[in-house]
Design a protein that fits this description.
By secondary structure, the protein is mostly helical. The chain has a domain at 24-52. The chain is built from three helices and no strands. It has helices at 5-14, 30-33, 35-47.
Amino acid sequence: MLASLSQTQEIVDAISSASLLNVPFASHSVHKEKPQWLNNIFNDFLNNTNPV
């Protein structure tokens, strides 16, 4: 299922612990195009996530 950015934002707004990272003009291969940038995003997420 594909969702528009506005639909995705509605979903994120409905889930209190959700966040959205939009990468403008990126393809589906962000991990290949900007690996260090994405690595930093993952590290920030993992370092700021509280385990259940």
